[in-house]
Amino acid sequence: MSDDVLLRATDIVKNFTIRSGGLSGRATIQAVAGVSLEVRRGETLGIVGESGCGKSTLARCLVQLMPATSGTVEFNGSTLTGLSRRRLRPFRREMQLVFQDPYASLNPRRRVGDIVAEPLRINKYGDAKKIRDRVTELFEIVGLDPAAVNRYPHEFSGGQRQRIGIARALALNPSLVVADEPVSALDVSVQAQVLNLMADLQERLNLTYLFIAHDLGVVRHVSDRVGVMYLGELVELADAETLYTQPHHPYTEALLSVAPELDDGRQSGRPRIVLSGDVPDPSDKPTGCPFHPRCPVATERCSTEKPTLVSISPGRSVACHYPRNLDETMVSHETKGS
Amino acid sequence: MPESPDTTDALLEVEDLRVSFATRGGVIKAVDGLSMRVGRKEVVGIVGESGSGKSVSMYSIIGLLRDPNVSITGSVKFQGREILGLSDKELRTIRGRDIAMIFQDPMTALTPVYTVGWQITEQIRTHTDLTKHQAQARAIDLLAEVGIPDPARRVNQYPHEFSGGMRQRVVIAMALSCNPKLLIADEPTTALDVTTQAQILELMKKLQETYDSSIVLITHDMGVISEMADRVVVMYAGRPVEIGERREVIRQPLHPYTWGLLGAVPRVETKRSRLVTIPGNPVSPLNIPAGCAFGPRCAYRFDQCDERPPITGEGHLDACWLSSEQKVDLRRKIQEVTVES
To answer: What is the pTM of this model?
Structure first.
């Protein structure tokens, strides 16, 4: 593994079994269908997709909050998948999560200082005084008044609670922070504060972020590279700038074209591509390309032959038989492998 | 009654609406002096953060806040007729027929124990003389119109058999069932995914043209406002702080709160940069500062801001003590900073 890769996932699959009305009474939902990706040291990798696309499940599998059905996760060169809870523990310090709902992710019956101190206690950070000092330091880092450690979560606003969640995630000096929709529950003005805070912390503490969100503007804003998921699969991966200006996958293209924009003269002027239908039921996935029933450019081939994620130019991968917006120069090394 | 020319085609006129809730913690002024009008076939967007009073103002207008602890004052004229203070019985002839409502969460707006057809026909039969069969046929037509495939079969299904986007279509079909003159849509796409949101917004635009309805669109999303609204009302702490044509409010915003709100939106079309933020948190409705409610969070606050600024202007109104020259100047500086970074 090259030095700049912090986390590498290979072919992650996560199946859930659910009860259904069928003959067997059971059905399998493939929430994540073979995703491979690398998170590089110091970068922010954004994962964007609509509800049910598997982005949160993928995040949970990556940090070993739930076991993947198959596939491997390597962190800093060590394989995590299959390790016992005990042996995982040193790695857990390195990988922390920030959750979406700052109301549900903080225990309402505990003081916020205790909530932030908990990871320190579990990991035997030091004596009471050392822990108290660290909590004070963490409160200052995330822009909260350290005098508030004895208050309860309900005394804080949504944005402040999310700061507490971030302080808890940072307690053990992790190298990777996985943020699952960290700002989607917040008002715009507060959302901007939290995004700016996360950017500052990344620089100051040398953090690597895996940032999961459905909001395309937010993802563009924070990410160096962006992966787009659809029905459990990674359909496109590129650095943020090129993905947003030159999307190759028709799904990415449609997604970007319908994101509401401010009418202030700085719009992209993209023609709107309004997709028909809904995201298919993941327990009954289409054959071939998962996107083909809604794809404006799908052909016969797409319904039978499944495209794989292939690199079509340095740093750019797309899973599509007919990538869009290709430069003349790119066509030469087009999807021969697929 | 003498009528000035600019109000002749007003469908809804709200004058100095105030809504307050008496709670154990004190009186909450949820809406504190809202005056606005909605013209025929006009789409008015009300934008603001949580607790700004945008939903409460509309709920109070159509009598959805009936509680001894709620006090509503002011005047609300619908088609020239005062509707504030009407009895429930009188309101029922307007609500659902002339004024319809689309709620944010399509799951809770429908009852899970009846078929969608039953729910639509109930509404039709309440307000018209159609027979059961005619109402059923109309329900199927409506479902087809809002883009639900196979409506004759779907009409007999229950809400849980529909996806989120499809449910919102059902709610829209229900709202349209009696050709309402005014449609109040409260965050109609907030619970939906981006691609579904695009479908629903497109549908609402199309139907607004076919039905000649006016729409009041309540949202926190400046992007949605930008795509849908003709005019915009920006609310903060229960008060309107800026009202104007969409293009003017978005391109030449006058109020510092609107500047912050627009600057805080991460853009799909521009690169990674630092966001303009509004410091602090939205004010607690229990504790609205005297003077300008936005004062404590405002970077341009000065002495006069201790006094509450009235909302003034020609066509494009705002509630701020800064002079128009100062506003133009400050806004230019902010825009330069954003473009550079």
So the answer is: 0.86
